Structure formats: C-alpha cells, structure tokens
Amino acid sequence: MEQSNQQHADLARKFNGNESRVNWHDETLWWIRQKRDKIVWQVPEWEALREAASQIKHHVLGNLADYLEEFERNAQQNGVTVHWAADAAEHNRIVHSLLQQQGVTRMVKSKSMLTEECHLNEYLAEHGVEVIDSDLGERIVQLLKEPPSHIVLPCIHIKKEEIGELFHKYLGTPEGNADPQLLTHAARLHVREVFMSRKVALTGVNFAVAETGEFVVCTNEGNADMGAHLADVHIASMGIEKIIPRREHLGVFLRLLTRSATGQPVTTYSSHFAKPRPGQQMHLVIVDNGRTVQLGREQFRNSLKCIRCAACMNTCPVYRRSGGHSYHTAIAGPIGSILAPNLDMKQYADLPFASTLCGSCSNVCPVKIDIHNQLYQWRQVITQNGHSPAAKTAAMKVMATTLSQPKVYTLAGKAGRWVLRNMPWLVNNRLNPWYKQRNMPEAPKQSFREWYAQNKKQG
Amino acid sequence: MTIGLFIPCYVDQFYPRAAIATLELLEKYGCSVSFPAAQTCCGQPMANSGYEHLTHSCNEHFTTLFADYDYVVCPSGSCTLHVKDHLHASNEQAALGIRRKLYELTEFLTDVLQVTTIDAYFPYRVGMHQSCHGQRGLHLAQMSELVAPPFSKPLQLLQQVKGIELVSLNRKDECCGFGGTFCVTEEAVSVKMGKDRVADHLQHDVQYITGVDMSCLMHMEGILKRRGSKVQVIHIAEILNAAVLQPATV
C-alpha cells in the first residue's frame, strides 16, 4: 500500500533525473497552453460557451439512459450494428469476435483512448491479432513499445531526433536524419500501405448524436477516415458518456474541443459517420467500464463530462514536470487522476495526491469540471477507504492532536524552533525531504503569540 | 468593529514579522484588532492530505475562538480559503458565520475597508507571486486561464506603495509547487516547480518576491537560500506597512 501511494512521486523523481529534458517537456506543453490562451481570447463568448457545454453535459448525464436508447434506435435504423459492453473485457471480446467473423488477424486503428483504457491492443496481440495504430504519435509510441504519455499528443515526451532513430530502425529512413518533413513522409507511406491492406478499421468516437444516430470522429491527420473508408468493416468504440442530444450541440463542442486541445480553431477533420456505405459493415461498441459507477458517485459525476481535450494536462504544472507516464494510467494528468481511482481505488490511490490543488485545470476545462475539488474529495475517499500509508495516518493523528490543543501546539512550536536554532543538524539532514534541495526557514526566537503577549498584553 | 486576527500556525512560528505587519496595518486603518491567543491551526494540512475527518476538534476550537468577532482577517489566501470551504462545527450557524465574515488581508483592505491610499515606502524591485488559493480560490486576482477582464487586489494595493518597482513575470500565475504536504511527498516535482518560479523572478532582476501567502514564499525562500541568492521573500503586509520615509530623492 505504501508503494502504491508513492508510485507517481517515484516515477516523477525519475523523470526529473534529467532536468534539461524536464525543461523541454514543460516548455513544449506551456507553448500549447499559450496557443490555447491566444485563440480562446479571440472568442468573446468563450466563458458562455464553456457554461453551455457544461450544462448540455449535465443534462445528458441526468438523462443518459434515455439518450443512449434514442441513439441506439437511430443508429440501428441507419444500418449500424450496436453492441453493449459492460466492461473492458467484454469490449475486447466483442472486437475480437468481429475480427474472427471476418477471418482477419490484422486491423488498423485510429486514436481511441477508450481502447487504451481497455488495453485492447495487448488483448488482441495475445489472441494473435496485429493492430497498427494509424495516428502518427500513437504509431511512434507503438514502435517504441510504450503507452501514449498524453491523450492528444501521444509522443509529446519524445524528441524528433529520437523519432529519426526509431524510423531509421523500423521504416528505413536515413540514419541521423530528423527532418520532420522526411519523417512524416516516411510515416505516410508506411501507414498508407496499412490503410490499403486492412479489412477492418477501428476508430474512436468524439461525439454521438442521439437524435440522428450518427457519430463524429475528430482527427488532424484524417487517419480515422482513411481507415474507415477503405475497410470492409468499421468498428467504432465509445464510452456511454459520449452522447450529445442534438446535432446543433456540435456547434458548441466542436468550437471548444480543439481550441482547448491544441489552440486550433477546429480539427482538420470532423467526420460524421451515419451509416455504412453499400457492402460495408458498421459496428458501434458502447462501453460502460465503470462509468455508471462514477455516475452514481455524486461528487465525481461531473468527471464524465470530459471531452478528452487534454487542456488540463497542458496547463498542469505537475504534469508538465512529471510526464504522462508518471500517472501509470491510460489517461494521465488531472482528469486521469479523478477518473482512475473510480476504476481501481487502491492501484491509483497516489494520483489524487499528485497535485498542488492549484486549480488551473478547472479553469481551462471546456466543460467546467471542478477537477481540483474532485482531487480533494478523492483524497478523502481514498483515505477513508484505508488506502493511505499507515505511517501517514499515524503522523496525521499526531498532527491533529497537537493542533487542536493550544498548550501542546505552543510547546511543540517552541521546541521545534529551539531545535532549528540550536541543533539544526537534527532537521537539516537527508532524512528531511524539505532539506534535500531547500533550506529550512530561519527560526525566530519569538513566535508571534509570544511577541503579542509581551507587547499587546490584552489578548 | 472588532476584528479577530487569525494568524496561520507556520506564520506564528516562523514569520512573526508578517503577523506583526498585518496587525499594525489594520490598526493603522483604525481597526480594533485582537488576537485570540489560544488559536492553533485551521486544519488544512490534515484536510488536504485526505484527513479532513481528523479536523473536527480543530474546527470546534476555531469556531469557538472566532465566533464573536465582526470580522476575521487572515494574512493568508490558502488558510482563508480552507476555512471558507471546509469549516463545520457542532454550532454550524457559528461556523457558517465565520466562513462569511472571514477575509484574506488584501481583500479586506480593498473590499471592506476600501483603502484607496497606502502610506508606505518600499524602494525596491519586487516580483509578485500569485498564490493559487488566493487567486483561483478567493478570486483575489483574475486568472490567466479565463477570458475575463483583468484585476488584482494585491497589485492594486502594491501599486500605491511609493518607490516600488513591480516587475511582470513570464508566467504570471503559475503555481510555485509548495502544495502543503505535496512539498515533501512529491519532493522532486515540488522543488522543480519552485526553481522554475524563482527563475522567472530572478530573470527579471527582482530584489524581493512578495505575495499573500507566506507558505509559497517559504518554499521559494528555501530554494533561493540553497542557491545562495540575495533575493529575499517578504509578505505583502510588510511592504504595505513599510514606514513612509520621505527622502529628498522621492
């Protein structure tokens, strides 16, 4: 338990072993935060848009069952086959069975954080199916045998020189060449061959429109479209929270999504998929995987409003300096830290503590999730469920006792300051994590209360 | 109007000069201030660590001590925010009353006392650290994430101090990484955040870093001292209370 509670801190410490790389990571993501600021200031009604989006999602979460059924009916009428998956395992089985029906062992997949959450690639690999991720960033981390470190920018932790080496090894690009144009051209040729030869393509879903049964997939690379249009079978995986009631609501969400994510006005491709073309099969897998549990947790319900823009990651001063992998979950950063404990409270007990509660995440969130308040609430829930280290609990009990008794507090304060002044080596040593890279404050002879008693008398 | 002075425990112990400046400043503006000597801590260190359930006796104690004042004023955005958000007691009416009449020092000066002139002299180059809880929690200043008109209560006050030269930072409201127990449980990231915040100030050649929260300043001070810097941290109350000397050059 002790270990799980420190996992983020340990991984973050390792990430901080290379300070210049941390600086580079921080500055890269801060640049995206600045791009976001610049473009949202061009929308005078920005705050009203956020509020509208938040309220639409609030309404959806309050009527989710009805909208899901309406969506299913309309999608079926359009000729789409709808599957329901209670959890990750069921989702993976459904996808695998669809592949088996086609008799194929190869699939192309565009970005879908849900499939990361369900560990679909690993599951399919175990069952002899090869999945090629067609999003460039995802393909890069896939070749590196790493998970994405960021939900919008999967390989943001990798430098172009490292991509040059990787592509030299796997795609035969010239050694030592890290020219982005050359590398993307090589990737294009590589992925194009994949698009042309795969019979089954899987995509994610950004928005599912209840009134029409259509779903919208947003990409900058057009890779979802390339995959889906060339394949005989299109499988789309979506979480139950992706529903919006009407098509007109896309006017709110599409304006918010990419401005928040990358500082672009809109994704290059916002593709509406309504029905299969003649001869094609279209399957939708609608996944719960813990979402209905979160829906039932009143203080955490709003986390389901998330549209996966990653603005909270880009702005998070901790994320920028600890890297996505330090969160050891598919969805990193502040939003991941409030979603993951719902999936496994013990395994992710450390994540709500990987924050200073600065609140910047809640302010950039396009659907106004009160992320930092939920981090605070998760800390309470995790502690009350016994997932805090025993040593921490003991220390907190001592602290609570000291701080609730004026005499004990006064004595402890006096003793502490005396130690700092007279035996600083007791505190200024390697056992004190504060002292490792920071000096302790100087201890004054007199506390304020002592000064007050001496100079003001009347308390 | 009697004011109950709420001094955060670590300010009481380590930065009494910030508390003295707060008291003197309030008295300068004609307030009758008293410091309930039995006060200890608001309970934030436990609550933010996931132990809000251990703060009951702190809360009871706090509520008893401060219930009868017209206002409660505190020179810390963070402790003020914690009490405003989380103070509950068996006498819930009294607790609610405190949550309503509790103010962070600078907002008390600008919003309640409506101070328009500051008689202070501080002829130095100063960087203002926007502490997150005061800014994003109490809305002491506009937040860079929002598309909304700018304002800043602490700066509004500092700008009236004679001789002061305020710098503008590259990242005007990024967290310093203190974060309560975060500063030790996530030592590596906390220090890195602090180093980066300090670097922004140093790049602008400040002589002092100020702010409304001594905890953030204590963290940055620890980093400054470790690197042997001469730059000092100072609570905003100390600047606002800095004696007006009128040298011939001003």
UniProtKB/TrEMBL annotation, chain A:
High-level lineage: Bacteria, Pseudomonadati, Bacteroidota, Chitinophagia, Chitinophagales
Domain of life: Bacteria
Name of the protein in its database record: Lactate utilization protein
Gene3D superfamilies with a match to the protein in the record: Alpha-helical ferredoxin, NagB/RpiA/CoA transferase-like
Protein keywords: 4Fe-4S, Electron transport, Iron, Iron-sulfur, Metal-binding, Repeat, Transport
Domain annotation 4Fe-4S ferredoxin-type: ranges: 296-326
GO molecular function, one term: metal ion binding
Keyword Cell membrane: no
One Pfam family per UniProt: LUD_dom
Record bears the keyword Hydrolase: no
A single GO BP: lactate metabolic process
From TrEMBL, chain B:
Span of domain Cysteine-rich: 4-84, 126-220
Gene Ontology molecular function terms on file: oxidoreductase activity
GO CC terms in record: cytosol
InterPro entries (alphabetical): Cys_rich_dom
Coiled coil: none
Domain of life: Bacteria
Protein name per Swiss-Prot or TrEMBL: (Fe-S)-binding protein
